[in-house]
Please model this.
Amino acid sequence: DEDEIAAAIGENVNKDKNTAIMIWVGILLDAIPESLVIGFIVSEGTRNPLVFVVGVFLSNFPEAMASGATMKTVGLATWKIMALWTGTCIVTGIGAMIGAAIIPDTGL
Model:
């Protein structure tokens, strides 16, 4: 029946949307310690933080692409997707600032 098919598709869309959001939440939570470490490295001033930042970006990029694409596929508005990822960038920046601020002047 068409009603059963529509119900099954609706269930899958909700599951996919939840999956995409949970991947995003995981990346957001993962960004907190990573951003603190970026702040530590920048504050210490003896290492090149760009290497670590590029490594973090490359390791998170596939998850972010999968999450963003799934969000778009299940009908989440583009502005909402952009707001979620912009929020992640802001949290990461704040975390790096905190990481840099909590390192004593003598370093680690």
Q: What stands out?
A: The mean pLDDT is 82.
